[in-house]
Structure formats: structure tokens, C-alpha cells
Amino acid sequence: MAGRPSFAQDNVIRQLRADLLRQPDSTLYTDVLNQLGMQYHLSNTDSCFWYAVKARDIASRRRDNRGLAGALNNLSIFYALKANTKQAIEYGFKALLLYRELEDQPNICQVLMNLSVFHDFSGMKQESNQYLYQAMELGKTLAQDSIYSLVLINYALRFEPDSTRRDSVKWALERSKEIIRKYPGSREIYYIQALEADGWMKEGEGAKAVQRINELADKAMKEGLVVVAIDMLDHIDTYRQNGYPADAIPAKEKAFAIGSRAGYLNMMLPTIASLYRYYANSNNEAKKAYYGRALWELVRKRLELKSSNYMNYLDYFLKEQELNEWQLSNRVQEQKINKANMKRKSRQQLIGFMVGVLLLMGGFTYARYRSYKELRRQERLLREMNDAISEKNQQLSIHDDFKNKLIAILARDFREPLNNIIRVSAMFRNKDMDQASLQLIIDEAVVSSRKTLVIFDNILRWIKSQLSGFVYNPAPCDLLLLFEQATHYVDQRRIKLDIPSGLYLAGDQEMLLFINRSLLHCATKLSPGEKPIVVRAVQEELVRVEVICTVSVFTPQMAAHLFEYRRGDDMSVTLVICKDFMDKMGGHISADVQGVQLRLGYSLPSFN
């Protein structure tokens, strides 16, 4: 029944429940309810019924024929699983009329197939075959051929015992296999493999067939397909009836156990009766009594259902709910009357009781308030401790970054002078070296050592600014004076200062002197020949200082990464320290290329 594929049953149900909460209108909400009911008919009949009733109520209020048809279809399947085929046929026919009115061909095909199964259960073979043939003809025209594959499987199951239809049954199975390949995870594959096992049984491979049936039943249970698992286990009893010495009792007990847990007990009357007869003949009194009680309960329910002329289960449910509401209302009224009588008889006792309750509530409220205040105080202390720990962690992280940078610079920039000293020492041991070569190596060592001393001086300044005791206090710094001092370290003839007199910056004098000297040194190094270098200062919201020079080969990409450390580039160490100094003072340093001009500049607040 119900030819819709089941992909990972539990995952599909969880996804549909999540989708139910996100639906924007009642039509989509009803559709998801019907999908949940259809999924649950394979694993839990009560859940299938609950979702179908809820969907039918909403669809009836909203006059949603498509939602109502889906709900009636699920109710039809529910009654079939409860062995009430008359009610199943009634609801299925109502669903068929609505789907024909909507011209929904796939669902028309599905309901026709279900009606064929329901009539077959009721012993109406001729009507069953007519519905099946209609479903076969309609299924050929469907683009959604997954439903057609299940119709073909029902055809094969129906006419498998008929030896005159072997060719058509074989064709139906092969055609169904072709369709199922497009829909991996479809439950139709269980029935096809079960029919293949039936073929093995007819060919004399009974043990192989029984093993396959048990494997299919276990797999169906793992995927939550309870109805499919019961159908698979029924094959073993069929093998026994056809003469194969298969022990069908374990399979029947297993089917009964899973069917009773999931609410499919009504469709298992033959199974329960068979188990009762078996244990009655084998003198197993415990299991005879167990299955006897189950058989008695099931027969009792069926007799009640029959005596009530197959009462509409849904209407009965709704009437019962209404009756429960009236009974509850009646009990509420009785309680109100009793309370009124008690008030008239014992008003003083009630007042005393209420005063006691109020005192208890007041004491409890006061205790809770004290506890709440104490909890808030502890939370505040804990938050302050967490903030202090976070601050310490940030300081440790900063110090760790500083340590890593310092180690990287020392490892790179102090290797070369040490290597030169080692080379000079080796040359002194070499008596055969001439004076000129020795002097050349000594000069290289001197230059390298001086450069290293400059770098070391820069690093010492940087270390001082990184120490935890360092506190930056901005002071007035004469910009013109600082640049005049910085020009002593470069070729003064190339430097042109365009800085207003009396312009003061808010910063640290040593840091600014280092930055100015470093920028001038960088400009003279990058600018070829004797081209002038202009230093310009403009006061706006902040004071913008620029060192402008002419460069030959310098790209905007190189300028964007100029103040980053690069292995093997001595100048990058100085520029990284400049950027760090500027960050300490709350300013901004950058480099920009405009044509052949390189602009090295920084911005700081004015102290004027």
C-alpha cells in the first residue's frame, strides 16, 4: 500500500517534523502533516492516525480539497492496517473522488492500487482485479514512475501463484527493477528480492531463500519499516505451507512482537491463532496462555467493532473527545459547588489556612530573594575574575607575539656578523693570504657589524616599548626640529623640508625621531641618484607628514606590504618597528605609489 519511497525512515520523519514548524500557511502545513502520516503508516499506526485526523480537521476548515484527499487516503491506510477493510474502502473511495476532481494522476494511480489491495483482503477478487488493471493502465502514462513500480510489484504478488501468468509476472518484475534503479533506497526493492527468494524456493534452494527473507526482515526493521518486515517474515510460513521444512514459529513470534509494539496487531489474527494452536499442541502452557490472551483480546475488539456496525472510528473519536470535555466541565462545576459549601461552613479555618500559606509563601519568597541576591553577587565576582583572566591572557598573547618576532629577527639579523667574525678568524690562521684580501674581509666585517649595531639599537628601542612597564605619555614634539636632527644621518643635500615652524605633534620624542630617521633612510635607499627628497607636513584634523621621493621600479603591491617583516630584508626590520611605534602612539603609517613618486607618511594629532 501507498507507493511512496522510504529513504532512511527516521531521518525523513525528523526532517518533516522540523519542516512542520517552518510552514508559512495552513495549506503547506496540512501537506506536511499528510506526509508525516504517510511515513508513519510503515512504523506506527497510532501516529499515522493522529496526523491524518489533524490534517483532515484543518483541510475541512480551510476547504482545502488536496489536503483533505491526502488525509482521507492516510485514514484509509490506517483502517486497512487495523483490519477494518470496509472503513478503509470507504475512505479510499472518497479520496479517489477528490483526486479525480483535482486531476492528480499519480495519487489516483496510488489510491486505485490501494483499493485493489483492500478489496483483495475483503475477498472481492473481481473488484480487486478491476482496480489493479486501472492502476496498471494509468501507471504507464505517469512521468513519476516510482508509483508505477509498486503497482507492478502488486501485480506480481497477486498473480505469482497463477502458472498461466508467469511471463507477465516476470515482465512486471523486470520492468519494476528498471524503474527502481532510478530511486535508490526505495522500499519496493524488498518485495522484488522477496519474490526472487520465492523463485529460489521453487528451484529447490530453500535454505538460501529463508536466509534471504530473514536478512530482508532485519534490514527493514533497522530502517523503521515495520510493515515491510512483517510482510517479509510471512514468506517463511508460505514456504512451510508449500512443503519446505522451514521452522516458521520464530518468524511468527518475531512478527507478532514487532507488530504489537507498533500497533499492527489487528492485521495479525492468523499469526496469533497459528502460534496459539502450536503451543497448545506442544503443551507449553506459559506461551499458550500468553498468545491465548492476545487472541482473546483481538477477537473481543473485532466483535465489538462488528456489533457496532463498523462505526466510523474518527467520528467516534471526536464524539468521545466531546464527551470527555463535558465530563470535565461537569467535574469543574461540582468542584466549584463543593468549594462554595466549604467556604460557608469553615470560613475561619480557610482564612487561617490562607494566612499560613501567605506566611509560608512570604518566607519562601524572602529566602529565594536572599538566594537570588547572593547568586547575583557570586555571578558578578565570577564575571570580574573572568575579565581579569581574559585581560591576563591577552597580555600573555601580546608578549608571546613579541617574543616570537624578537627571536625571528635575532635569528636572522645576527647570523651574518657572526659568520663574518668566524671568517676573519679563519683568515688570520691562514698565513698565505695577502694583505689586500685580508683588508677587504675586515672591511666587510666592520660594515656588517656597524649595520648590526644599528639594528640592535633599533631592537632595544622596540623592546623598551614592548615591556609591560612601558607607559606611553604623549608630549609636545617640535616636528621641524626632529627632522633637522634626523637629516644628520643621511645626505642632507638631497633633503628639502617643507614644514611650518612651530608645528608640534602629540607623541613620544624618541619614537618620532626614530621614525623620521628611518623614513629618510628608506627614501634615500629606494630613490636612485641625487634626486631630491621632500618632507612635507599638512595640518588638517590630524597632522599628515609625508616623505616624498622618486623611485624607478616600485609597485602599489610592494607599497602595501612595505611595513611587514620580510626575511633577508634588513630595512623591513626597521619599518616594522616604525609601524609598531606608530601604533603605540595611536597614529597611522602607510606607503603609497603615484606614478614614479613614493609617499611615505604618517598621521598624528597636533599638540597646538
UniProtKB/TrEMBL annotation:
Keywords, alphabetical: Kinase, Membrane, Transferase, Transmembrane, Transmembrane helix
UniProt GO molecular function: phosphorelay sensor kinase activity
Protein name as annotated: Signal transduction histidine kinase
This protein's record includes keyword Ubl conjugation: no
Chain ranges passing through the membrane: 350-369
Species per Swiss-Prot/TrEMBL record: Chitinophaga ginsengisoli
Keyword Transmembrane helix set for record: yes
